[in-house]
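Reading a protein record of the kind used here takes only a little practice. The integers have meaning only within a learned vocabulary of local backbone shapes. With that in mind, consider the following protein and its fold in token form:
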Amino acid sequence: MEKELSLCDFHLHSHPDKILFRHLLNVGDKSISTSREKSLSLEKFGINENIFSEIAFLIGICHDFGKGTEYFQKYLFETDPSIQRGLKNKKEYHHGLISAIFTYYILEKYVDALNDKNILECIPTIGYLIVKRHHGNLKDAEDEIRELIDEDVLEIIDLQIKSLEVSELKTVYEKLLERYDFSFDIDIFCNKYRSIAKEILKNRRKFVKLLQDEQFTGYYLMTLTLYSILINSDKIDASSINVSSEIEVSSELVDKYKVEKGFQNSESIMNKVRNEIYDEVTDSIEKLDLNNKIYSISVPTGSGKTLTSLSFALKLKARLREEKSIKAKIIYSLPFLSIIDQNYDVFEDVFKTVETANPSEDVLLKHHHLADIFYRTQDDEEFEGLKSLFLIEGWNSEIIVTTFVQFFHTIISNKNRSLRKFHTIANSIVILDEVQSIPHKYWLLLKQVISGFAEYFNTYFIFVTATQPLIFDPENGEITELVKNKDKYFREFDRVKMEINLNSMNLDEFKEIIESEVKEKPDKDFLFVLNTIKSSLSVFNYLKDLKLENSDYYYLSTNIIPKERLNRIKEIKEKSEKRKIIVSTQLIEAGVDIDVDIVYRDFATIDSINQVSGRCNRNSSKSYRGQVNIVVLKDERKEFHRYIYSSFLIDKTKEVLKESSSEIYEEDLLFLNNNYFRKVKDTSSEDESKELLSYINELKFKTLTSDFRLIDDKAGYEKIDVFVEKDEDAVEIWKDYLLLKSLKNPLDRKEKFLAIRKKFNEYIISVSKKDFSCKEPEDLNIGYIPFEQIKHYYDPETGFVFELKSTMMCD
């Protein structure tokens, strides 16, 4: 086709430096090649892989049809930025809706030509929805269609139709569609666009009724996959950034690493159990039925699940490639930033040890808001700034380490920026580590979405935790446990004894108890985990004032800037001559690899109690059991746990604990956890999940996203981000940030901010607005504590000072 073309014959542009025809062809080709790389199972839709790819291509070549108007071409080549901004706000210069109607027209022709009664009739409508919002966030499907009722909207399209460069568009689409059997006519479209819009509107009730009656998650998954393929292909062509290469990661990578590190030769009980678990899980890969796509690795904390799950995923990846021609990414997702770097460092060390070089970002990628904005390929091509961010946010890597927020707010989203990577989850191997932290109210919702990915898009999921929630029920065969001997491993570990005291006490009573204990046991490391920042501050300051000899004090909470928090965790993990007294909020729980002798935990849910127990005698290095004490603390109003956890979960925890003895050993934990999650599953309300599922199944994208919050601030206070100018580096970073205001070009502003973003975010804390009365710096939407006033508002040990109300001047 291309040899016959002369681009000189085309005058319409999609971008200042790109011919519209070339852009449409590139986006169509990228869309079809992306979809053809996927192994899909879409028989339920009456669609095979080839038809799906053709639909992706047709959406790709139609998405910018509306750029063929004189209005858009005038906007594109306007040289005065202020005039151009004014044009952008006028609806006749927009191209989404007219392109969406044209997409519907072409897809209807294609579907009719297939003459297959089984194929979904709603494909043209889905194409309309996708193209209409390819430059914005998705809205609710019915609202998007109802817009065609508005006569003012249709009159805008009247103007656009009259201004179309019809002659060139005919040539463009004759070339783009020449291999298809169906007939189309640009002139007929221009004459009948109102009747086509009327048809879309008329079919609305049928379309909405179909969604409401079937309540089928597959429509949502297919719509977002096609949307993701389109916007990703569009952005790749517009940016001229496309990194794709065949990268092989050895399935034996972790095996070799363990040999290099001598882990197989260790005689300690911990390493013996770790090796047994590792071997059991990785040996299972050969006999695995690949039709089962949802797995669990349920093992005690500290038993090497990070390396075990990575090795299993690499071996599964190799098998999928060999037997099913699936090129699977590995997406490793964790709930907390405090453990992202820790686990990423383990992965990086595997590559450095075995491959004797740091892995490039197209092999191993870290994606969260504190990560470096830098991307290097195996070919040593380097990207920074916006280009780097583009590649990072597109998950252009073999192994991605990211947060639950990034992952779950991608699969449950209407946001254009998040959904660009949605299609990468198809055919991937997704490891969900510390999965017990997913709120139970979302279990049914996520079960349905994850099941859909597994069934229709051949995505494999591995749930990893010591406390396996019953999102999928093993008794019903919904999930395959890879650790058949998990009961044995929980019995073999005898690291802790847990004592439960359900009689509530106030902080003064608690302080007397712990003062006595820290004084009586001067050689023991202590960890105190409190439920609220203010109670943790009170306990820390009390213990610090004791001025005990040979003791280092550490305080951890989100009240402290991330830079300092991560440094403290690193210090705590290092060996020291002095004993350690650590006071923390619950951020210490999941996966933070520290090891203490005695833990005190303010009452929480079973999974949180179990997680914090994993910080006690973690490596089984003591000749005695570690001690975990669970207490119930209260203020003058209520128990502290009532501020943080749902009453339902707390009541289930108390039920389980009352059924057990007051002393609990590690071998009891598996039964305790299973009993707890069974009670939660059997008696919890699924109303919230069911409501969100109805939004998903009815394609109510905007409503869904506004109601789904993976991290729920139970207190409900409005928060403000605050920049803490804690040191001289922060002073310079704030100066650079203020200079961004002087840049008129938003792309220049964004590029400059990306250069400082990582360091900037290291000084950000999130504070309730009621505790921070300082006015925000004008136009910056952020709070600010200047260096010269730091001692009044930010304590170097405990972070933001709550007791003082800020009266400082803010620039």
